[in-house]
Amino acid sequence: MRRCIVPLVTVSLLGLILAASVTDAINFYWQSVLMFMGINIILSTSLNLVNGNMGEFSCGHAGFMAVGAYVSSVLAVALFAPGGFLGGPYLPGYLTVFAFPLLLLAGGLAAAVTGLLVALPSFKTRGDYLAIITIAASYIIKSTIENVGAVGGARGFMGMAKITSAMTEVWNIPWMMLWVFAAVVFTLVVIRRYVSSTFGKGVDAVRQDEIAAEIMSVDTDRVKLVTFMLSSGLAGIAGGLFAFVLGYINPGSFTIIKSTEAMVMVYLGGMGSISGAALSAVAFTLLMEVLRPMQVGKWVIIPMMLILLMQFRPEGFFGHRELTDIFPGLRRLLGREESGK
């Protein structure tokens, strides 16, 4: 019975959010805030795989997000949008409801393949050198997009609003809220199962001592490759959702500032903590909204908060712990053994 609690709570929460959105109990502004919370949760937990669980230092997550955003958007507009840049539509609009998750996965797959740009050099580099490589990869991606006129170049790319409109014509519900919620659940389940698996234990072994892990027969190169690709792929899914929520993207949306936001969320919640990264993403999104009137000034306050955090609590709010470690009652409620299984 206890094992049914999590799916039951998930479905109930989804129903509550959809009901509140349909009845206008949640206005469009708060719907947008909730969707950006979900996108930030995916972005934060995916980066936490590399920077937290594996102990590497990646600073270019925005680049993988950009790949996912552009691949998902271009495919959707080319296939479904009337008057698309390739002369579409090639498929009827009602299929967008079924094709949308496939479009997100396509963007995630493209981002995962792009993640090889980071995974391969990571075999021989660590620390500051890896940070430089990831920043360079992010700028390569951004500069490439800026020089591809077919996707708008520096002007940006639009047309995703036609796709979301086609979905509402099939059934008038807040589809993007539904897809963001589903993507958050998918991301958390995948990451949780990955780090808890036998293969995933090798990720923690790499973080603790890579040489010792190799001696203990851990294929560290394979662990790095799979982890980087999984992290990049999930960031690509976040990018696809980001594109469709906004309805417009340009390369300026995926600068080093976006990567910095992801790092702030990871270090705020605690390295290697899935629940910490998720909750810090929620807090960070709300903080960004509170500080929105300050415009550029908020980027004085947020880095200052990060500096203070590193000075007085460098392990973050959760450290390397989960909510079930801080509140053991949750573990019993979820029906898990004391070993955390």
Overview of the molecule:
- It is built from 16 helices and two strands.
- By secondary structure, it is an all-alpha fold.
- It has a domain at 34-255.
- It has a two-stranded antiparallel sheet with strand order 1-2.
- The model is unreliable at 337-341 (pLDDT under 50).
Q: Please outline the major beta sheet.
A: 2 strands, antiparallel
The overall average pLDDT, rounded, is: 85
Total helices: the number is 16
Shape: globular
Residue stretches low in confidence (pLDDT < 50, at least 5 long) are 337-341
- Taking all Cα atoms into account, the compactness measure Rg is 20 Å
Strand percentage, roughly? under 5%
Oligomer status: single chain
Helix-strand string: HHHHHHEHHHHHEHHHHH
Helix coverage percent:
over 70%
Strand order of the largest sheet: 1-2
Structural class: mainly alpha
Distance between the first and last residues' Cα: 16 Å
**How many β-strand runs?**
2
Q: Can you describe this structure in just a few lines?
A:
The chain is an all-alpha fold and 341 residues long.
Topology:
Blueprint: H1 5-22, H2 28-53, H3 61-80, H4 96-114, H5 116-122, H6 127-146, E1 157-158, H7 160-170, H8 175-196, H9 198-208, H10 210-215, H11 220-246, E2 248-249, H12 256-269, H13 274-290, H14 298-312, H15 323-326, H16 328-333
Antiparallel strand pairs: 1-2
